[in-house]
Design goal:
- The structure holds two protein chains of two kinds.
- In chain A, α11 links the parallel β9 and β10.
- The model of chain A has no long low-confidence stretch (mean pLDDT 90).
- By secondary structure, chain A is α/β, with parallel strands linked by helices.
- Chain A has twelve helices and ten strands.
- Chain A folds into two domains: 153 residues, Rossmann fold, CATH 3.40.50; 136 residues, Rossmann fold, CATH 3.40.50.11900.
- Chain B has three domains: 117 residues, Rossmann fold (3-Layer(aba) Sandwich); 69 residues; 166 residues, Rossmann fold (3-Layer(aba) Sandwich), CATH 3.40.50.
- Chain B is 52% helix and 11% strand.
- A four-stranded parallel beta sheet of chain B has the order 2-1-3-4.
- The longest helix of chain B has 29 residues.
- Chain B starts with a strand and ends in an 11-residue tail after the last helix.
- Classes of the chains: A alpha/beta, B alpha/beta.
- The interface between A and B is large, with 38 and 40 residues.
């Protein structure tokens, strides 16, 4: 932990997991408290190579990327910020991996670096309270803390609004929906090649957004998947050409849920494709599958038009 | 005609679960391990990247359906791990395959779960069989403990395993509480009839990890027996009696290892609940290191969300407290010989550690 009360502490934030789940929140929050947030750069092949030597072999791809980001940060920061994200939406939970994340990071790849952590559990306390608690542990006075919390949450909501607006602006009614976790959809290594390829194919694209905290009742307790489920439930088959699900290799949650989503899309009559992204560099496979998917759907459309 | 109800595998404890099901007015369909055939069926039908226990359960229920069983029982969970979604997915997969078998959940589904609504068992006989079942669980706990102790010391290899099988078979046929109690008492004597070599100081190894893997000998390729026959005294940390005591607050006579206690032990290394038995694994490793176990074996299905995520923590404990840990992960491709080889190599290292005096037979470190 950085020394109490001191300012301008360099706090490292890995550009993975919770960074994408809470966009802009952490930078804004720590900056307002008078510290210097250092966010690691976009993930690349190099991030992965960095991680591969040290990370647990059986980890999922996002976790490996997280480890890579942490390793790229540890030499240049005073402390690392790794929260324990147990729940993002009231009454729901996250991947079990997050429960052990700070402890595993401390015990594993980030030994010797002070770790700043806080337990985010929306079921127990709302985000603003959690942030206040975090502010108190790093010795911010009450007034600054309140302001920082307000501003940070406002910044995040602003971001969510902008993003939703941007996605809605894709008014083309034959667009593709890209599904995935926030930390796969916005990861440079995982989703970028797919997004770029689809752009190249001139396929209009909508990314799944997670700003809306409405949850559909049902048995899916994982917040992210519940939001995706809700989106698929209300999916208008005339507005979307197809659904492309990005699944990260060895993601346990994906392995359970994609099957259900596939089934849902089949019932809805929306074409569905699952793209599993792993740590291999060869992109030809992904390119080919995307081309085939987009082409076959356009032929189908042409057939119908005849 | 009485309808049949297939129940999930929980290793030797399935004997006790089967006893409870009879009280429901259904005939139980069970086995203490997933057969090879069931595994093959499950692997073929399940999505490729789900974890091994799901494939085992699916195969087990497909096999049940093939045998004409009408209903199946699957435990519910409300945790963060994949187990939470097992039942729904089993239902959907079986329906897609055109199977007729009905899947009922058990636990966390209201005051009168659907399975009770369906069978509508009379209360008194049901309670009676539940008590018999609980009594049997206690007896099986003893069988487990005795087997682990005797198997490592037996003079004629294999005797203990045979006796264990015999005991379980006999236990499954008993249907009064009194008889179970009597059987429980006699069992101590029966295990004493096996000739053991008391002068041996076997290696002591704790088994931790995921439940299905710890309990289903098909899934873990008979790990307990392999270790036992190599002269290792194992301690399997999943004893259902203790588990029930923890999770449902039923007193089964287990004072040690309550959930609260384990959480406190694990706290320096792991501050929060992870899911599955991950926190227990951490806590047991710490206690084993303190009480002089020679090593730990950590088993989990490949890619198990909670167990894999705590591996860095286990490695740190291993370094800090000087206790070797062998992580073993199992998927459908893991072969028994591979497991045996790795275990053998591990035991060689442990024996040489002992010889060098890193850890004495009593477990205390020599100067």
């Amino acid at each position: 932990m950085p020394e109490r009360g001191c300012k301008n502490v360099k706090i490292g934030i890995p550009r993975a997991f919770y960074y994408h789940s809470y966009p802009r929140l952490w930078e804004c929050f720590f900056r307002r408290l008078g510290h210097e947030p250092v966010v690691s750069s976009q993930s690349t092949q190099k991030t992965l190579e960095l991680a591969c030597a040290q990370t647990e072999m059986e980890n999922c791809l996002p976790q490996k990327l997280f480890d890579g980001h942490v390793l790229s940060l540890i030499d240049s920061v005073d402390a690392l910020f790794v929260p324990r994200v147990l729940s993002i939406v009231h009454g729901h939970n996250c991947c079990p991996r997050f429960g052990a994340l700070p402890d595993a990071t401390r015990a594993g790849i980030a030994r010797g670096v002070p770790l700043l952590s806080v337990e985010i559990n929306e079921t127990v306390a709302p985000l603003s309270k959690t942030l206040l608690r975090l502010a108190r542990t790093i010795e911010a006075d009450r007034r600054t803390a309140n302001l920082a919390v307000q501003e940070a949450i406002e910044a995040m909501e602003q971001h969510h609004r902008e993003e939703a607006q941007m996605q809605r602006a894709q008014c083309d009614n034959r667009k593709f929906l890209l599904l995935g976790h926030p930390y796969t959809l916005h990861d440079h290594f995982i989703a970028d090649p797919i997004v770029k390829k689809l752009k190249k194919l001139q396929a209009p694209l909508e990314l799944m957004t997670f700003g809306d905290n409405d949850i559909s009742p049902g048995d899916i307790l994982w917040c992210v998947f519940n939001k995706m489920y809700r989106k698929l439930q209300s999916l208008d088959r005339n507005a979307y050409a197809g659904v492309i699900q990005i699944s990260a290799f060895n993601c346990g949650a994906d392995s359970m849920m994609t099957e259900r989503f596939r089934r849902m899309c089949k019932q809805n009559g929306v074409p569905y494709m699952l793209l599993m992204v792993d740590e291999h560099t060869g992109r030809a496979g992904v390119d080919t599958r995307l081309e085939a998917f987009v082409d076959s759907l356009s032929w189908q459309r042409a057939d119908r038009a005849k | 005609m009485i309808e049949r109800l297939a129940i999930p595998n929980l290793g030797n404890y399935t004997v006790a679960l089967a006893a409870m099901v009879t009280g429901m007015g259904a005939e139980p369909w069970w086995s203490t391990y997933t057969s090879d055939h069931a595994m093959a069926l499950g692997i073929a039908a399940a999505p490729e990247s789900v974890c091994l226990p799901f494939k085992a359960h699916l195969g087990h229920f497909i096999e049940a359906d093939n045998a004409g069983v009408e209903n199946a029982l699957m435990v519910n969970s409300i945790g963060a791990c994949r187990l939470n979604y097992y039942r729904g997915m089993l239902e959907e997969t079986l329906k897609d395959m055109g199977r007729k078998i009905r899947i009922f959940g058990l636990g966390f589904d209201g005051f009168k779960p659907p399975v009770f609504r369906y069978f509508d068992p009379p209360l008194i006989p049901l309670l009676r069989t539940v008590f018999i079942g609980l009594e049997k669980i206690k007896a099986i706990d003893t069988i487990e403990l005795k087997t682990a102790y005797t198997r490592a010391r037996e003079v004629n290899t294999g005797e203990t395993s045979l006796l264990m099988e015999r005991c379980l078979r006999e236990l499954s046929e008993i249907n009064t509480k009194k008889a179970v109690r009597r059987f429980h008492k006699e069992m101590h004597k029966r295990f004493e009839t096996i000739q053991i070599d008391k002068s041996r100081a076997p290696l002591r190894i704790g088994l931790i990890g995921e439940v299905s893997l710890l309990r289903d000998r098909q899934l873990n390729h008979n790990l307990e027996q392999i270790l036992g026959h190599m002269g290792v005294e194992i301690k399997n940390f999943f004893l259902l009696g203790g588990e029930i005591g923890n999770n449902f607050g039923l007193s089964m006579g287990y004072k040690k290892n309550t959930a609260k206690y384990l959480a406190a032990v694990a706290k320096p290394y792991l501050e929060s609940e992870v899911g599955g038995h991950a926190r227990d694994s951490v806590a047991h490793t710490i206690t084993c290191a303190q009480t002089g176990f020679d090593a730990m074996v950590h088993v989990c299905p490949t890619g198990c969300m909670p167990e894999v995520s705590i591996r860095p923590i286990l490695r740190k404990i291993s370094e800090d407290m000087d206790i070797p840990i062998l992580p073993l992960s199992f998927d459908e491709h893991t072969c028994a010989l591979g497991v045996a080889t790795r275990v053998e190599a591990f035991l060689d290292i442990l024996r040489s550690r002992r010889q060098r005096g890193v850890r004495g037979a009593s477990g205390r470190r020599r100067a």
